[in-house]
Amino acid sequence: MPLPGNWLLHHSAATRLLLLSLVLMTFCIHRVTANCSRSCYCSESPEGGLAVRCSGLHLPEVPRDLPNDTRHLYLDYNRLTTIPTDAFLGLSLLSELDLSHNDLAQLEPGAFRGLAESLEFLDLSSNRLMALNPLAFEGLRSRANLTHNPWHCDCNLQTAMTLLDLEPASLAGVVCRTSEPEEAGVQGLPFLLAAGADLCVAVKKTTDVAMLVTMFGWFAMVISYLVYYVRHNQEDARRHMEYLKSLPSRQGRSEHSSTLSTVV
Length: 264
Ligand SMILES: *[C@@H]1O[C@H](CO)[C@@H](O)[C@H](O)[C@H]1NC(C)=O
Ligand SMILES: *[C@@H]1O[C@H](CO)[C@@H](O)[C@H](O)[C@H]1NC(C)=O
Hints:
Order of helices and strands: HEEEEEEEHEEHEHH
Number of helices: 5
CATH topology of the largest domain: Leucine-rich repeat, LRR (right-handed beta-alpha superhelix)
Strand order of the largest sheet: 1-2-3-5-7-8
Strand content: 5-15%
Low-confidence stretches: 1-5, 26-33
Largest sheet: 6 strands, mixed
Number of domains: 2
Bound molecules: 2-acetamido-2-deoxy-beta-D-glucopyranose
Radius of gyration: 39 Å
Mean pLDDT: 83
CATH architecture of the largest domain: Alpha-Beta Horseshoe
C-alpha cells in the first residue's frame, strides 16, 4: 500500500513548510520590533526614518524606548498626564508629535528639549492644559494645535504667550475657559483675539495698592518714632533741669540754672 507512505511524505513536507514559514515570520517580526518601541507599531516613513504609532494603548507615560530615527510619533488617545523633562531627547529627526486626546495637565520644563531644530507640528489639543509653561517650549518654533484645553487666562498666561516662539497663528487655539479677573470678558474667546484685554492690569493695580499701604505704614512708624523721641528727650531735659535745681544752691549756680531753664 503506497498511500500511507506517500501521505506521510506529503504531510511532513507541509509541516516542514509551515515550520519554516513560522520561523521566517518570527524572524521578520523580531527584525521589525528590534528597532521599534516595545509598545508601538513602526513603519517606514516616506521621507526616511520611522512613523511610530502608539495611539490608543492606554499608555500612562511616554515610552522610553523610542527609536532614534522616529520622524512621526503618534501618542494620541492615551493616558498621559504629564510630559517629563527630556521626554523626547535624542529624537533628532522628529518632525510631527501627536499628543492629542490625553490627560495632560502639565508640561515640565525642558519637556520638548532637543526638538527645536526638527519639529514642525505639535498636537496638544483635547487635553487638560490650563496654563502654559514657557520653559517647556524652549525655543520651539513649530506649528501647534492648542485647541480644546480648559485654558485659564490670567496674567501668567498672558506673560507666557509673549515668551513663546511657536508659530504665532497657533496661539489662536488658546480659548479661555476661565479667567482672572473673571470680569475681563475673555471667557469663550481666543485669548489673542480678545482685543485690548490686559489681564496684568488688575495685578498691577493690586501691587500698587499694596505698595501704597506699605509705604504709608513705614511713614506712620517713622512719624511715631520721631514723636516718641522728641517727647522722651523733653522729659529727660526737664528731669535734668529739676536735678540741677535741687542741688544745694550757691549764688552763681542757681543763676546759671535759671538762665538754663529760660533757654529750655
Ligand atoms: C541612532 O543611533 C545609532 C547608534 O547609536 C547611530 O548610529 C545613528 O546615527 C542614530 N541615528 C540618528 C538619526 O540619530
Ligand atoms: C486641532 O485639534 C482639534 C481637536 O483635536 C481638531 O478638531 C482640529 O481639526 C485640529 N486643528 C488643526 C489645525 O490641526
